[in-house]
Amino acid sequence: MRFRSPTRGLLSLEDVAADILHERAANPGADYRLIIGTDSQLRGNGTTATFVTAIILHKTGHGARYFVRKFVHEHLYSLRQRMFTEAALSIQTSGLLMEYLQVDSHDPTPPNQASSPDWHIEVHLDIGERGETKQWIREIVAWIEANGYEARIKPNSYGASTVADRYTKH
């Protein structure tokens, strides 16, 4: 997986994790939120969609840094299929990122619990109480929470509805 950062350029997921760990180590007393959100936009004849997954490290009260991954998926025929694909991509990215955040890639021995930061991931979904997507909220939110993440929907899901959305249009 390759992600683009506006400030760091093209990075692997391992490099994204290293950047997140470095930022958190540089400011150990700061309050951070780790957010994963995916959005999509239909293209062409309506069966091709551009998906963007954003990883956002929000330093509460002091801004954020983010990384985005963009790709095209073909043969999507329904809004429901797109919404579940967005959720699946966020779950997948969260799981892979956690693997890098929990273990130092240069040290094969796992860190002890006292030195390992407690990571809390929010998955931001581009669904809300208004519009066609409201019928899948309960199902998608339950899926996200069953995977151990906190689910956020509109209007509190800026990771998907603002950051990722911005990159689906270009």
UniProtKB/TrEMBL annotation:
Pfam families: RNaseH_like. InterPro entries: Phage_KVP40_Orf299. This is Ribonuclease H-like YkuK family protein. It comes from Alicyclobacillus fastidiosus. The lineage of its organism: Bacteria, Bacillati, Bacillota, Bacilli, Bacillales.
